[in-house]
Amino acid sequence: MTNQQKFGISIKKEEDFSEWYCQVVTKSELIDYYTIKGCYIMRPLSLFIWTKIKDFFTKKIQKLNVQEYYFPMLVTKSSLEKEKDHIENFAPELAWITSYGNVLLDNPVAIRPTSESIMYPCFSKWLRSHRDLPLKVNQWCNILRWEVKSTTPFIRAREFLWQEGHTAFLTKEESDKEVLQILDFYSQIYQELLAIPVIKGIKSENEKFGGALYTTTVEAFIPGSGRGVQAATSHSLGTNFSRMYDIKVTSEGNIGNGIGGGEGGEGGEGKNKSKDKNKTKSKSKDSNTNTKDNPNTNNNPNNTNNNIPLKHSSDSFVHQNSWGITTRTIGISTMIHSDNKGLVLPPKVAMYQVVIIPCGITVGRDSTPLFRYIQTITKEFEGGYVGCGCGEGCEDSMDNTYIKDSKDIKDIKDIKDSKDIKDNTKDIKDSKDIKDSKDIKDIKDIKDSKDNTTHTHTHTHTHTHTHTHTHNHTPQPIRYFLDDKTNVSPGYKYNYWEIRGVPLRIEIGFKELNNNTLTVIRRFDGKKIILENKNIFKKIKNELNEIHRLMYLKALKERDERIIRVESYYRFVEEIENGNCVLVPWCCDKECEEELKRRGGVEGEVGMDSNKDSKDISKDNTRDNKNNTSDNTRDNTRDNTRDDTRDNKNTRDNKDNTGDNKNNVLTTVPLGVKCMCIPYDNEDVSDKKCFNCNKSAKSLGLFGRSY
């Protein structure tokens, strides 16, 4: 077997995306298959990426005073039944424990599909007074959803890792603000760590989280498969769950201040409950109705207004949020950046940012001078830093100024006669109409909370390479691996590390030794660079920064070329069939969206394979893991009927020339199409008609096939 056959990818990305992806994630050693369908073994390379994401996000939410918890993974049936509307979406995927040994349980328990029903009974016990708020909880854990559709490593699995945040506030204004703050953090994970552009938006009524008031999302697009993917979500739950789980606090203020509103009979200390539960809830509900619009309402415990003499108290249901991001991040990055040679890793999440390969070593030739030369380079890597924006190398934010300032970003033009979907949060105009809920219109614009302050640095160099930064960023050396194995050739090593996606390969032989240089090859584009061995840390740092910048711009360009602006149903179907996402004028009505789904014959997301049949890509288990059970095997027949030709799609005129939708021949919505989101960066379409039902349009909607 040749090195190419052993390590290389045998299927091209553009020919069979599903097979290509399976080979990349397994041959790069991101994952291995397990004997149970939909469960995967995360290997060190992927777990390192997840750890970097955890570290990045944890620093962000710590600034918001979010605290870490860990809750049990088991949930009772009675607790689940309290949130029937919410749990309805998860019911087919719930895994129940019904026995231990040979003994049947009188009360079966489920393994968490999400943790609302586990956490919120505790919230009800913990929260007594408005002074207990806000409560901000986060946990990193695993989730089990017995996926009945096709499974895809990282993208759609039965067990996966995630972060879930759950918070409670006294006022809706505080809650709304946090929803968008967290959404910004998720956008930064993709942009600043993974070099992936995402679209911020709000979910349609049909696609929002079950039980939520509204759901905000960041959406990515996978050009290789022509599908969108939900990258992370941040939900406003309003008071829906606090009413289910009786999460109330005693809020105090002057009579008529909007909290309590004259219904003082149900107040009192702590969690006093009326015998008539419905009456209590009704009065508490009434007591919340005036909060939003009353300018005198201010129950923030940190506000000095709380020292005003109090004349009235009443129980109020708290306003809640939940938000989460999963190991799907790794799959999205792999799908977007990787190529026919294997994995391509963004530098900031790569376990090894540089691999050093000694060359020209032969029997009888003294290699001692060569390895001494290599040692001088590795010492500099260990003693330096990989930049942070402050310029001194902290890896927390490796020189992301291009994201804010680079003309490469701000000069990107319209997407196919449409405004570009930019990555900054803006208000949706007349969101009242979009959501049919007055609660949405109060969402404010939250700017990215990036630290642009000037930092002062002090560095203390010792033999152990310790450094001190006064700005509290963790110092990080360049992560490198010296592959000095002597039983394989340099060419073997090139293939080995190329498929694993290491951003930079440094080749050092006697030629480099004699010339005091390094030969550097970029994994991203294969560019070869000769660098003088002077200030080498700074030069390598610059190369890593440049790789990240170019990866982001490439992904942005490929995405924008595949988001097409259309106005008719005929063109909508045509562009979806061509593997694109579409921006269309839309009425945003729930009934219109449901009618689209009925015509498509689907109920939302599909798996990874084909336009016709959803197949479990774990069929690859039978090739890559001989220990897999028969449950992991699937029909290996591929659907080759998909039209992969996208001739002239980049120059296609996006203006609608098709006339009335009713006269068009195409009437079937392609499989798996749904509204991905209503982008926050939108435009006035009040003079347009809905592409589907011909009602007045309220906003541009982003539609496409989705994982």
From TrEMBL:
On whether Transport is a keyword of this UniProt record, the answer is no
- One family from Pfam that matches here is ProRS-C_1
Feature: compositional bias, Low complexity:
287-307
* CDD domains according to UniProt: ProRS_core_arch_euk
Which keywords label this protein? Aminoacyl-tRNA synthetase, ATP-binding, Ligase, Nucleotide-binding, Protein biosynthesis
The Enzyme Commission number assigned here is: 6.1.1.15
Which portions of the chain have biased composition (kind: Basic and acidic residues)?
Answer: 268-286, 610-659
Q: Which GO terms describe its molecular function?
A: ATP binding; proline-tRNA ligase activity
Matches recorded under SUPFAM superfamilies: C-terminal domain of ProRS, Class II aaRS ABD-related, Class II aaRS and biotin synthetases
The segments labelled Disordered in the record are: 256-315, 448-476, 603-663
Q: Which InterPro entries match?
A: aa-tRNA-synt_IIb, aa-tRNA-synth_II, aa-tRNA-synth_II/BPL/LPL, Anticodon-bd, Anticodon-bd_dom_sf, Pro-tRNA-ligase_IIa, Pro-tRNA-ligase_IIa_arc-type, Pro-tRNA_ligase_II_C
Reaction equation(s) it catalyzes? tRNA(Pro) + L-proline + ATP = L-prolyl-tRNA(Pro) + AMP + diphosphate
The record's similarity note reads:
Belongs to the class-II aminoacyl-tRNA synthetase family.
Protein name per its UniProtKB record:
proline--tRNA ligase
